[in-house]
Amino acid sequence: DSGVTQTPKHLITATGQRVTLRCSPRSGDLSVYWYQQSLDQGLQFLIQYYNGEERAKGNILERFSAQQFPDLHSELNLSSLELGDSALYFCASSPSGGTGLASNEQFFGPGTRLTVL
Amino acid sequence: AQKITQTQPGMFVQEKEAVTLDCTYDTSDQSYGLFWYKQPSSGEMIFLIYQGSYDEQNATEGRYSLNFQKARKSANLVISASQLGDSAMYFCAMREGSNNAGNMLTFGGGTRLMVKP
Q1: Which of A63, B20, B80, B108 is deepest in the core (most CB within 10 A)?
Q2: Per-residue pLDDT tens digits for A12-27
Q3: Residue of A nearest to B53 (CA)
């Protein structure tokens, strides 16, 4: 158990709908990362928040947005869903969000499997 | 260009034997970190081992060791005494240290390892 929790574990929805994925980082971790794992694109970085502020953006679609709340949990909002959005969405956390040479191991949650029908 | 390349989509190994999973990377940064993660069929991402670009010794964690050849830009994972439970997808990932916008991980395409009894 990494200490990172994600809800829900599975989500099945229809095209055009909007969903919210939730992540609680490990106690004390300030950074939250969202990754998408799909058959087409593999594992790719979406977005990072550090202590409530957006820190870095990857290949995140405009239909997707995220935020990190004062209690450090994060939500990833996916709207106008398409079939191609079906994927495993991971949240990861790490203690820091800076550029130091520390290992900055990222602890991954169990993922939310999204199926868009 | 791919930043992380794993050239072996699938590999078999006999139980109790050692196996090497290949990973090459591409970066112009002097400071970076290399990670290996294991993803069993249940889907979670399990951190295995980390190597920093300035680390002179190859990293080791139990049965896992990282064969780091900086000049060749390779970071191969060696699993000794394979066990049936080692059957999983293995991902190599890199964090580039000069990324002042954050420290997200870039993943390779993965290698599926199957351990034969």
Answers
A1: B108
A2: 999 999 999 999 999 9
A3: A101
